[in-house]
Each structure stands twice: as C-alpha cells, then as structure tokens.
Amino acid sequence: xxxxxxxxxxxxxxxxxxxxxxxxxxxxxxxxxxxxxxxxxxxxxxxxxxxxxxxxxxxxxxxxxxxxxxxxxxxxxxxxxxxxxxxxxxxxxxxxxxxxxxxxxxxxxxxxxxxxxxxxxxxxxxxxxxxxxxxxxxxxxxxxxxxxxxxxxxxxxxxxxxxxxxxxxxxxxxxxxxxxxxxxxxxxxxxxxxxxxxxxxxxxxxxxxxxxxxxxxxxxxxxxxxxxxxxxxxxxxxxxxxxxxxxxxxxxxxxxxxxxxxxxxxxxxxxxxxxxxxxxxxxxxxxxxxxxxxxxxxxxxxxxxxxxxxxxxxxxxxxxxxxxxxxxxxxxxxxxxxxxxxxxxxxxxxxxxxxxxxxxxxxxxxxxxxxxxxxxxxxxxxxxxxxxxxx
Length: 391
Known about the structure:
With 391 residues, this protein is an alpha+beta fold. It is 34% helix and 33% strand. 37% of the residues are buried.
C-alpha cells in the first residue's frame, strides 16, 4: 500500500507542504507547469531548488498579483472576498474534479474555524483578496499534488505550532492563532521552543482534511523523501518533510459486526457511507432472519486496528443496534498501486495489483463514470475502448 508521512517538527504552512510534495515527484517541473495552467486568477507558481544547512530541497514561490506571499500573511484575513467567490474560483479551475472537491472542502474548514473565532456566520465572512488568491494557490497546489501522488493513506506527525505571538489584522495574538488552534482540535500538537508562528490555519486545515492518522510515525519502506522550505531562518532547518513509500498491508484488521431488524434501508446506506468516508476498509450487509422470525441484516465494518474505536463509535451513533461484536483477523492482500495513464479522454487512473503469483489491472470506476457522462457512452463501452488502446 502506497503511504505518505508528513513530518511537522517545524510546523506546517501551505507553501512548505506544497514544496515538500513537489520535491518527491519524478518530474516536478512538469507538475508546476500543470499548476500554472490551472487558471487561478493572477496566481503563479515558481519552483526553486535550494540548499539550506547542507540539505537540498524545494522552495515554492506562490505569487498573487505578482506579489509573493509573506510567510504567514495569507492566513490572517482582512475583509474583502466572500467565501462563495472562493468556491466559484475553485470551481472554474482547469483541474480534476477531485482536486476541486478537496480544495473547496479545505477552504470550508478554514471558514468554519474563522466563523467560530469571530462568532459570524460562514456566509458573512470576507477574506482579503490577495491573501485569498495566494491561499488558493497553496490549497489547490497541495490538493493537486496529493491527487497526483495517489497515496492510499496519509500519516501526519505531531504538529509543532511555534511559540510567542503573531501580528494579524486584529492585533497581536498568541501562537497558535485562534483559527489554527481550532483546526488543530483532535490532532496531537505542541508549542516547541521556536519563538515564531510555525503552523498557519491553511497548513492546519490541509493536515486535518487529508490526514488519516496523527502522532505516531508508520512502519514503512521509504522510496522518496521531499523537503519543503519556509522563508524564515532558524538555527533548526525550517522545513516540512514528506516521506513516500510502501506500508505492508498484510496484518491484523478488525471486524465490527451487529445484527439489526429495525432499521430503514436509507439509514443503513447512510451509515455505510459515513463509515467508508471515515476510513473503513469495507462495509457490507448480509440478509438474515432474526429472533421472532423477523427479516433483518448482519452489518459488518472492516477497519484497521487503530481505527476500531472510531468506527465502533460511529456505528453506535448511526445504527439502531444496542451491541457490537469485535473480532481481530489476519488479512492477506496483494500489493496495489494506482497510476495516471493518458488516454483520448484525458488521464485515467488504473489500479495495478500483484502478489501470490497473480497480476491484475483495473480502471477506476469514478473515471469510467465521468467519461460515460461526458460522452454518452456506456461504462462498458468506455472500458473496452481504453483497454484496447492500452494493449
């Protein structure tokens, strides 16, 4: 399983995370060219390879209206641009729909945090135009980079927030800034001994949205390492570090199972969606006859061991069951990776599987469905056309 580990010992800002992700890519310049064709109004990306403290990495320069973003100026917003305009800008970009969806969701996390801080409705919030444009560059850039890297699981270290105070539109505030503190809720973080703001609201929102686990570093085989440099200089290397590699999937998983005879099909479907979105490996139901001869179902959620408590709580919240059985199982699985393959219909994601003397490939359903909708052809027609041209 392809995994990605984000090390935030010097915090996280959007441009630093983007730089680290770009630094892991085989052809980073081609990716930056793609970003510059996305169509962000008055926004531009520049990649600079530099050396700091003897370490070579990437500094991403994000320009809005030909002005480079300050280290944190994009994160403490003045009044100007309403959230719906940001949504419209992202919706108009020339990037995959998944990238638009992710970037919009990240911005809504930021807006919700700002809403709590200022006690204003999300729809009433306005953001400084230049700050928002370079912020959009950061968020869209990271969303697009993660889309290209196709990691199946993203792990995030404990996050250093920095110490002291930060200047913003409302005056001098403590670190972490109020919106950052809200976005870090539920994630392990610490101040550290650097007297500066290290983690911004944008950086925290990106970690919160994309991260699957937080705190402990995973056991993994590293393939590439990327360094994304910040602007400020400290005695310690100011960077976000990203490791890309493989994590052995064979191992123990947990099955959470319950029986129900009093839940509507709509409710069952909703619960399945919630669990899958929260990181369940699989969710399925089996028809069964219950006590008193009632037709019912057996509901099963398969998950990783470290997700078992979260999945259990979600099942109790969204199902009518009064009890859940938990079983630990040993799972054997094939090695999988997803590649973007160019076709007449644009890039298509293909999942390649191998192991135990078997190899397989499968075109991702979401891409088949998108092409079917765009062309009016059936999914089977699209699948066969792509397969023929791949041979």
